[in-house]
Amino acid sequence: MTDDIVVLRDVKKSFGEQEVLKGINLVARRNETTVIIGGSGAGKTTLLRHIVALEQPTSGEILIDGENIVGLSERELNRVRKKFGMVYQYAALLDSCTVMDNIAFPLVEHTKLSTKEIRDRVMEKLKILGLDPGVEKKFPSELSGGMRKRVGLARALMLEPPILVYDEPTSGLDPPTSRMVDDLIEEMRVRFHVTSVVISHDIASCFRIAHQAILLIRGQVVASGTPDELVRGDNEEAREFIKKSGVDVSDVSRVAAEMPSRLGK
Ligand SMILES: Nc1ncnc2c1ncn2[C@@H]1O[C@H](COP(=O)(O)OP(=O)(O)OP(=O)(O)O)[C@@H](O)[C@H]1O
Ligand SMILES: [Mg+2]
Q: pLDDT tens-digit profile of 112-153?
């Protein structure tokens, strides 16, 4: 088992004339939280779609758990996709379905479990995520933003993937709810031993949860390291990007547990 669970080597992607990813190199380590930050249009979502095998690069290598997934058949890519739980911006729940049906969806699609087994597993996940019994009968429109996030997370966890991927998990949420989502991301990591890859505009969130922060600007990784290394380091673009956010990072409490294996390295 490799510690480097997600590895990108010189990944390039063009859509027509436009080169969106310009030779990305990055490593996400197992059981850590890697946060990819960067401005609008930098290529963050495109990068994430490559990691979860929804998009193939124009060139380069993408290794998931040691396996190069570039050039795999659709059938093999489907196997790789099951290693990821996706938590989308605004939770992306189906409005016309109950919470139960939303969360049950991956099990209905990908397993042959009975209705009763599926129901039991959904109820178990609701409980783990601190959602009260009874919520399964509600529709997404009847839930608060924070509750919708938990439901989206419950759905992402249904197939017990080793990697959880979040695209802008705190966008559109008020600051207290954003901090709650940060805590939830860290709790999921610790509790289910998952690796988290998070895309974010939210610098406070990045400082709270990241073991590693990666700054993407115009399709290139311009800096990577712990958030504190980025803010104190000699990379001017990184310092500038963090400063521009207006967040006083000395004020932000860090919730991500230190990774003992990396201390002293
Ligand atoms: N399927 C596609 N076809 C053509 N162009 C695309 C496609 N997907 C993304 N792009 C282009 O790639 C660029 C980067 O988009 P992307 O969504 O990855 O940025 P982002 O960093 O996630 O931005 P945001 O912070 O606004 O979500 C944009 O110019 C976008 O138009
Ligand atoms: Mg995006």
A: 999 999 999 999 989 888 888 899 999 999 998 888 888 988
Compute the distance between CA of residue 69 and CA of residue 136 in angstroms, rounded to an integer: 37
43 lines ligand 1 (CB under 6 A): yes
% of the chain residues with pLDDT over 70: 96
Of how many residues is the chain composed? 265
- CA 211 to each of CA 129, 197, 265: distance values in angstroms, whole numbers, following the listed order: 23, 10, 14
- Let me know if 119 is exposed, middle or buried by CB neighbors in 10 A (0-12, 13-18, 19+): middle
User: Measuring from atom 31 of ligand 1, which residue has the nearest CA?
Assistant: 41
Q: Residue 39 CA: which ligand 1 atom is closest?
A: 25
CA of 47 to the centre of ligand 1 (A): 9
Round to whole Å and give the CA distance between 192 and 169: 18
Distance of CA 42 to the CA centre of its chain: 17
Q: Which residues surround ligand 2, an ion (CB under 5 A)?
A: 44-45
**Which of the residues in the chain have pLDDT under 50?**
264-265
Per-residue pLDDT of 80-104, as tens digits, reads: 999 999 887 766 788 899 999 999 9
pTM of the model: 0.91
Instruction: Give me the residue label for tokens 């990691």.
Output: 51
- 56 CA distance to ligand 1 centroid (A)? 14
- Whole-angstrom Cα distance, residue 132 to residue 154? 13
Number of the ligand 1 atom closest to the C-alpha atom of 199 = 22
